[in-house]
């Protein structure tokens, strides 16, 4: 790394540290050098848990991530129920996702964002930290209840019913600004030659822009602006439908795949029985960051090309999810 690159990296990390301090969170420098992407660590303590948090900066990719590794472990007999709960929770969070570590059945909440350039947006990063803290606080009791023997669907449904005001956030973005953002998305997609120009409807479950056909199924994108106007939500899906008898093994597979990603998150939708790849970018003051959008979209398509064929293969195979995961790792190494 030359002096100019080193100066830029140090500036990004200093800005990250200042954002943490604005939440009165401690900053512990990474002195070991063992993990070059680890910028620093911090700690969160509340009435639910006390746990470290890792602040990650991938210099080469201009990408930052946050990870909360919870101290609690998931008993082997509760893995299936916990994956099911995580699947339900992850569907609500385009910026973060929960995953279970293969090594010791611990679990973490992790999320990432591309900078879109060589500088950190303090307002976006603060929003990123705020949502991570809020979501971890709200969801930890649900996870603990499932680990202790609760039914994941019943616990999740009760949470949603009790927190409708939180889940359905106040709409604070005008229709004009929302349309402007979606028009910017259409323009960017057209320039990237991803969108089907005949597709007119956005911000709807029916919104699809066709992506290249592969393995006898098709990818499609859907884009929405969240009700509070803070997030542009990406959903990448395929035409695959999961048979009832394959749901448990697919749940495990997508749970294991989510451990491999700091950004995009897979989830299974109960109603449609389809698998979605979810992501998002933070919007500040209604401003659409084209570069961040392009990088996020490209990465999402790259990951979708890796994981959807594996999911398709799993549905017709008797091999274990662990074997499938090894194939994903091998294909990534070859690229």
Map the helices and strands.
Layout: H1 3-22, E1 28-29, E2 38-45, E3 50-58, E4 63-73, H2 79-90, E5 96-100, E6 106-114, H3 122-147, H4 152-162, H5 164-167, H6 175-192, E7 209-210, E8 219-225, E9 231-238, H7 247-259, E10 265-269, E11 274-282, H8 290-315, H9 321-333
Antiparallel strand pairs: 1-2, 2-3, 3-4, 4-6, 5-6, 7-8, 8-9, 9-11, 10-11
Describe this structure as you would to a colleague.
The protein has two domains: 3-167, Yope Regulator, Chain: A; 175-333, Yope Regulator, Chain: A (2-Layer Sandwich). It has helices at 3-22, 79-90, 122-147, 152-162, 164-167, 175-192, 247-259, 290-315, 321-333, and strands at 28-29, 38-45, 50-58, 63-73, 96-100, 106-114, 209-210, 219-225, 231-238, 265-269, 274-282. The chain is of the alpha+beta class. The longest helix is centred in the middle third of the chain and has 26 residues, at 122-147. A hairpin with a 4-residue loop joins strand 2 (38-45) and strand 3. Helix 1 (3-22) packs across helix 3, helix 2 packs across helix 7 and helix 7 (247-259) runs parallel beside helix 9. A six-stranded antiparallel beta sheet has the order 1-2-3-4-6-5, with helices on both faces. A five-stranded antiparallel beta sheet has the order 7-8-9-11-10, sandwiched between helices. The protein is built from nine helices and eleven strands. The two termini are 23 Å apart.
Q: Main traits of this protein?
A:
6-stranded antiparallel beta sheet, 22% strand, single chain, 5-stranded antiparallel beta sheet, 2 domains, 9 helices, Yope Regulator, Chain: A, 11 strands, 335 residues, alpha+beta
């Amino acid at each position: 790394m030359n002096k100019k690159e080193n100066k830029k990296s140090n500036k990004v990390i200093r800005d990250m540290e200042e954002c943490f301090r604005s939440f009165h969170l401690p900053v512990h420098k990474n002195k070991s050098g063992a993990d070059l992407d680890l910028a620093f660590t911090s700690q969160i303590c509340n009435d639910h848990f006390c746990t470290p948090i890792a602040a990650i900066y991938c210099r080469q990719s201009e990408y930052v991530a946050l990870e909360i590794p919870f101290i609690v472990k998931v008993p082997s007999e509760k893995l299936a129920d916990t994956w099911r709960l995580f699947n339900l929770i992850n569907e609500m969070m385009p910026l973060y996702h929960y995953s279970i570590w293969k090594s010791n059945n611990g679990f973490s909440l992790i999320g990432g964002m591309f900078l879109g350039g060589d500088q950190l947006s303090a307002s976006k990063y603060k929003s990123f930290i705020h949502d991570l803290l809020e979501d971890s606080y709200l969801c930890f009791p649900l996870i603990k209840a499932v680990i202790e023997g609760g039914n994941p669907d019943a616990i999740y449904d009760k949470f949603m019913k009790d927190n409708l005001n939180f889940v359905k956030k106040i709409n604070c973005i005008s229709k004009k600004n929302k349309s402007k953002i979606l028009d910017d998305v259409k323009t960017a997609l057209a320039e990237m030659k991803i969108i089907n120009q005949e597709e007119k409807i956005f911000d709807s479950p029916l919104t699809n822009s066709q992506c290249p056909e592969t393995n006898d199924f098709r990818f499609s994108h859907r884009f929405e602006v969240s009700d509070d106007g803070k997030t542009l939500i990406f959903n990448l899906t395929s035409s695959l439908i999961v048979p009832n008898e394959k749901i448990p093994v697919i749940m495990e597979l997508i749970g294991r795949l989510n451990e491999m990603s700091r950004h995009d998150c897979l989830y299974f939708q109960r109603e449609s029985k389809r698998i979605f790849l979810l992501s998002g970018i933070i919007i500040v003051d209604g401003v659409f960051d084209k570069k961040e959008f392009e990088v996020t979209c490209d990465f999402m398509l790259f990951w979708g090309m890796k994981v959807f064929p594996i999911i398709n293969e799993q549905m017709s195979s008797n091999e274990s999810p662990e074997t499938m995961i090894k194939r994903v790792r091998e294909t990534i190494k070859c690229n």
